[in-house]
Amino acid sequence: MLEKISASNIVEKENLFNYEKGIRQGIPAEKFEVELLNFDEMDKGEETYDLIVANDCFLHSSNKTVLMTRIAKMLSKGGLLLFTDILEDPQACREMLTGIYNRLHLSSLGTALAYERDLSAGGLTKKQ
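-> structure tokens emitted (128 positions)
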């Protein structure tokens, strides 16, 4: 049974889009919260969520280990984190990636190995 859905983004326009889409999908307004929030600063309490879904956003975190630790605390026992992100091929020529680094205001992108390390350091385990 649906208790509550929370969504957040650092861009107000995206939050409005997410809210409107949720309402169109039939999520009751009283069970759906959308807020302007930077995930590097979020603190939603312990064991708050059964499921956290994140789409192409963790690459913007200044400290992924701290972020994963925070997410692990917010997940209920047995809770799941489902995420996608843009990954960097460790074999890629860094000079060829300069354009994307500049566009995203980053010095690097995460690699699969780095994410596995950060997930583990944050107290999360990878499931296949």
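Residues 12-24 form the longest helix (13 residues).
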